[in-house]
Amino acid sequence: MHQPMTGKKRSRWAWLLAAQCACALIAGSADAAVAQNDAVANAILDAQAAASKVARLPLEQQVKWLRNAAQSGALEQMGDAQLVALFEAFDPLTVPRYVAEGPNGYPSYEFTMLRQERIRGVWPRRPDHMLVRRTREPLRIYGKWLPDGPHSGQEIIYDESRRSDEMYGHLGGLFNIMPLWTSINGTLARTQSNHRVSDLGTEFIARQFLDEGRKSADAGITHPAQIEVKTLDGVRVIAFTYETPTGQPEFYAKKEVLGLDLRHPYFRTVESYDNDGQIFERIVFLTITPKTFDDMAFDPRNPAYKF
Questions:
Q1: How would you write 159-177 as a 3-class SS string?
Q2: CA within 20 to 30 Å of 195's CA: 27, 35, 80, 147, which one?
Q3: pLDDT value, residue 32
Q4: pLDDT mean for each 10 residues of the chain (307 residues)
């Protein structure tokens, strides 16, 4: 017949069980850590192998491969390490050629964006949140500032087939100041932006990237200073940091970080820095949707608008 455990024996037994469990947990954690490290190492090796294979292709084939990978969704499915290894292995001209061949936008589309610009030295606390409708041939733009931004309620319409040098708009807000025609380069147009209304859209950023790239190449800069995967306001991109040799005014910015869309040959994010290292512009395209619009989409008499 077994004798009942004393308090000391029971404590010793409990301590031994706890020690065994702790050892098992430590061993299990170590095995899991080793397995995770092996998985990461294998992923890096796979990425390096794929990048090495693509790097051996001639420029034209690299551009074609990149376009197919983006359109098929394969690029979007890659992990961060794979994307970085891939784009570091590309010929320096692959991304510029890919963007140049486009399309950099759609003949007719709607997008939402976050936009901040340093105006007269002041950086806004909150970004403007905008809804924009745009068509090409003729260029027509409707823009609305959404409620969660600092200029809620403002609206503009630009139609180059009607008045190529003017836009129609109102300031919105509590008093909804009377709408008026104003120059696209005038004081009112520049109170909130350093850009013209026609710059709204993905096309302008693509053109600026190519123009700045040519100037950088002439100055001997062909590779980005850094390539990384970033997620800004929910938008995941492959981001290229370019640093120019002299900065402004020869270049648009001293440093720019451009985030390339993973399905299309246009940029979804832009961050621009001046010669002192201060950010002066930040743009994130949250959504980009091809759409067809009728004439009322660019008519101030549209009952859905507040002109």
A1: ECCCCCCEEEEECCCCCCC
A2: 147
A3: 52
A4: 45 42 42 48 53 90 95 94 94 96 95 95 94 95 92 92 91 66 78 87 96 93 95 96 94 97 97 97 97 95 91
pLDDT of the residue at 47? 54
Please indicate, yes or no, whether residues 67 and 148 belong to a single structural domain of this protein.
no
Question: Which candidate, 250, 267, 261, places its Cα nearest to that of 209?
Answer: 267
Q: Is residue 260 part of a domain?
A: yes
What is the total count of domains within the chain?
2
Question: What is this structure's pTM?
Answer: 0.81
Task: Confirm if 256 and 272 have CB atoms less than 8 A apart.
Answer: yes
Residue 278 to residue 254: CA distance in whole angstroms: 10
pLDDT for position 110: 98
Q: What Cα–Cα distance (Å) separates residue 134 from each residue in 126, 150, 192?
A: 24, 23, 20
| CA atoms 130, 135, 138, 139: torsion sign | positive
141: part of which helix (H) or strand (E)? strand 140-145
Q: Does 265 lie in the same domain as 180?
A: yes
Strand partners, 135: 108, 140
Domain check: are 130 and 274 in the same one?
yes
Q: Which domain holds residue 203?
A: 108-298
Q: Quote the tokens at residue 39.
A: 């998985």
Show which of 101, 119, 134 is a domain's final residue: 101
- Closest CA relative to residue 153, chosen from 169, 171, 131: 171
> Cα torsion at 71, 72, 76, 79 (round to 10°)?
-140
The residue out of 47, 69, 101 marking a domain boundary is 101
